[in-house]
Structure to design on (836 residues):
């Protein structure tokens, strides 16, 4: 089954909102062997919605539209859909009751705005996807062999409706074309060298096998995808090819599932009963945040001291006042003391420290914007490294974060091997 | 000028990568009065790329394609473009020299993989957009009155090429249709009530004026957009309408530019010489990270103690052992002591503390997953609030973060008024 996602609303087109909805929907569909072939973000104008529905129906079997179902005037999706399906909007009584209940719960003494009544209007030809988590109902329509699903754009409601209303319905369809994926997370080899290394294996792939390279700073994800009609044969073949790649690439493969680098670190630290703390200046808590987004992090991650001001570096991390005065906050000497300080204070086996000038202001000739020192301390050693990044604040924070985790990983492997 | 963005590559369609490139490009174009009308993410297959280029050229004047310019086999954009423009790929010597230089700089003793030579192949009909920041050059092609721009998908390189190569060229075009935007950030009024409140103003809008509601947890952004051909008249009208909305909505409007809530907090704290620290358990550093992403945060934000383990709560935040034993880490008593602890330790005017069960595991009957306590302490008061969120870890972290900032804002306003 081929799917297409249409997101409706100017906010994505103006660059005010990042389209994380489509990413999430694509992940869910992929688990049901439904392949998203196109994601289209369009303006919330009548003609654009109408032509996009038509074009999508020529390419896909399943069309999922999000956005434009709210109570305000810029929400026009339902009206356009009524034209597209040549049907009317009718009031659904149980949805109306639900909307009224939600409203009364939140606003005990206020009367419901009239605009909210329109939330209960649904396409006459649809099956209502009841929205227990908000006011705008979803709609499921089947027409000319195609499935259309309309969902609100609010991420939380959309996710609940996909999970509880859409996926159970879709899972009843038998997919003729099957997809099988295998993943490899490779650390410390550049994209083109990796491609060269596995060239012979890749050249021998049949037409139904595809290999994608997804490079990021310091890492490359490889995604092997196989299509066909026999799932068990595809799985066998995928396992063989994945093993061939693992043997060829060697220890730079640090994961054979689609997991993040942070997850690999957490799991390995858990297995080896190691713990971690961070002392963050320029990364401002981002390393801690990345680590603690992984469920189960609490078994490994003890805590962090985000020492933005120098006095916090002195007070909580025990950095010597004279070190700060002599070498400055962004220096090898300071990050070493920060790392030692947080390790001692939180009693961990490993600790990371970062200090730098994230920018775009605050640089000097000696220490330009993007200058970052990182220290990692382990069971026996301290390693440090200086980086000169760019003038982009968010990018510098991101690069410092991944660089720190790569240094941590290297020291961990080294000490594990000792 | 109407623009369309095409992103090429399966990673977005499989939900492995969020499309932040398009968001960023749309922002840049919008500043030049170029309106993105559609963003299309497609598979990296020959026919799909070809038909998308054709369809986009029927809708837009400017087509920006990202992705598929790398050195590996899954990068096919250049070959398809050669077919589309009915031209050949030719080797560009200065690009080749540049690629070789970059390679030698990184890999001193290795020879360059042959695949990298293909990076220097460009469309014969193009103007090369020289990539000083990576190996894949951008390309600019004008054909039949349309502009096509091809860029690598690596965000850093794409951004540099847009900024230094594409925008300067585009800024030379005179845009006949002008766009003017005004923004309002509104806190503490729900979307439908806000719509009701400003209904009369909205109903009186002419056809060239549009109002969009962008709701998020606890906040609604309003975007007023006006189109026409006279920029100065549009600006006058936009200012008038914006003022009308501000007067109607009242003090719930906390910003009249397109800024984030975090930025408003930083600016107001700066103006009022207030400082901030956080003590984070379930948010794991995310509040600190959100705040420190704003340039200039260092004047307000002193630091954070991410107290993931209980012993850190005791040791660094001075939470009483008996409080933890009696009420547990997720309790009103604990967050109050955490907030007091970090405020005292870091000497700030305000402090936030969070403790909760982010999930998906770790819940109990008394304290289910999604149960979060937040405390905010100011000059005179401590306020606390309990939240019961969902079973989604990342969503819980996000909601706890925004809820904490809203509580902080309320206390700040209250104490400012005292």
């Amino acid at each position: 089954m081929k799917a297409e996602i249409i997101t409706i609303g100017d906010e994505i087109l103006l660059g005010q909102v990042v389209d994380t909805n489509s990413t999430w929907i694509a992940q869910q569909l992929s688990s049901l062997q439904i392949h998203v072939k196109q994601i289209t973000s369009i303006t919330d104008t009548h003609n654009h919605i109408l032509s996009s529905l038509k074009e999508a129906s020529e390419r896909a079997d399943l069309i999922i539209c999000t956005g434009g179902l709210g109570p305000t005037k810029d929400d026009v999706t339902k009206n356009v859909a009524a034209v597209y399906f040549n049907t009317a909007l009718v009031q659904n009584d149980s949805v109306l009751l639900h909307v009224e209940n939600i409203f009364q719960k939140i606003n005990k003494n206020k009367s419901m705005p009239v605009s909210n009544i329109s939330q209960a209007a649904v396409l006459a030809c649809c099956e209502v996807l009841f929205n227990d988590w908000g006011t705008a109902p979803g709609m499921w329509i089947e027409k000319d062999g195609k499935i259309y699903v309309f969902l609100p754009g609010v991420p939380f409601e959309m996710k609940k409706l996909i999970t509880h209303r859409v996926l159970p319905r879709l899972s009843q369809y038998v997919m003729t074309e099957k997809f099988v994926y295998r993943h490899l997370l490779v650390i410390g080899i550049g994209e083109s060298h990796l491609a060269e290394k596995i060239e012979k294996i890749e050249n021998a792939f049949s037409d139904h096998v595809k290999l994608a390279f997804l490079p990021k700073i310091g890492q490359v994800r490889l995604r092997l995808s196989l299509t066909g009609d026999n799932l068990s044969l595809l799985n066998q073949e995928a396992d063989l090819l994945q093993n061939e790649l693992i043997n060829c690439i060697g220890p730079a493969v640090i994961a054979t599932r689609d997991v993040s680098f942070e997850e690999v670190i957490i799991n390995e630290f858990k297995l080896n009963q190691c713990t971690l703390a961070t002392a963050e200046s320029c990364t401002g808590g981002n390393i801690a945040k990345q680590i603690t987004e992984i469920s189960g992090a609490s078994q490994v991650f003890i805590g962090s001291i985000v020492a933005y001001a120098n006095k916090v570096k002195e007070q909580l991390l025990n950095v010597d006042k004279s070190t700060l005065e002599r070498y400055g906050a962004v220096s090898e000497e300071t990050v070493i003391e920060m790392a030692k300080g947080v390790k001692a204070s939180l009693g961990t086996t490993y600790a990371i420290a970062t200090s730098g000038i994230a920018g775009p202001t605050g640089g000097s000739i000696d220490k330009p914007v993007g200058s970052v020192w990182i220290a990692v301390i382990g069971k026996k050693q301290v390693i440090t490294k200086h980086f000169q990044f760019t003038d982009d604040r968010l990018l510098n924070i991101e690069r410092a974060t991944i660089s720190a985790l790569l240094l941590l990983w290297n020291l961990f492997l080294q000490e594990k091997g000792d």
